[in-house]
Amino acid sequence: MIQIKLDIPALNALFPEGTEARVQLQKSCIENFAHAHIKNIGTEAKAMIEDARVRTIKQIEDQYTKKDPSSWGNRLLSDDMKRKITDEAEHQIRSQIRDSIDKAIQNTVETLDFNKRIERLLNEHIDRYTNQCVQKMIQEKFQQAMNALGSK
User: Rounded to whole angstroms, how far apart are CA atoms 109 and 117?
Assistant: First the structure.
C-alpha cells in the first residue's frame, strides 16, 4: 500500500481555498466521517422504531380491546382503525427519530474542524520525521567521529 503524507503548504497547493477540488475534499471527509460514525445511529433507529411499533400495537390492543363492564357496550376497534392508529404512531415515531438523527448529524459536522485536525496531524508527523532525521544525523556524525578517532 502506498501512503501519501502532505504537509499544510502541500495540501493548500494541491487544493487551494475556494476551488471545487477543495470543496470535494472537504465533502468527502465529512461523508467518510458520517458513514463511519453515524451509520450505527440508523441501526439503533430501526430497532427503536420496531420496539416502539410493537409496544404501540400492544398498548392500543390492550386499551381498546378490554371489556369494560361500566360501558353501554363492549367495543373493539376494527382492523382498519387499528391499522390507521398504528400507521400514525409509526409516522410520528419515525418523524421524531429522523429529526433526532438530523440534529445529531448537524451537531457532529459543526463540531468537526477538518482543517485544524489535518494541520495538527501533519504537524505531528513532521515533528516525528524531523526528530528521526536529527537522530540519524547525530548517529552518523558520532560514527564518523568514532571512526576518525579509531584510525589515529
Answer: 13
The tens place of each residue's pLDDT in the chain, 152 residues long, gives 677 777 888 878 888 888 888 888 888 888 877 777 776 777 777 888 888 888 887 787 666 665 555 566 565 666 777 788 889 999 999 999 989 888 888 877 777 766 677 778 888 888 898 889 899 999 998 888 888 887 76
Dihedral-angle region of residue 79 (phi above 0 means left; psi in -120 to 50 means alpha; beta otherwise): alpha
Nearest-5° Cα angle at 25, 24 to 27: 60
Map out the domains of the chain as residue ranges: 8-112, 114-152
User: Distance of alpha carbon 15 from its chain centroid, rounded?
Assistant: 24
- Enter the pTM of the model: 0.32
* Three-point CA angle 92, 93, 97, nearest 5°: 120
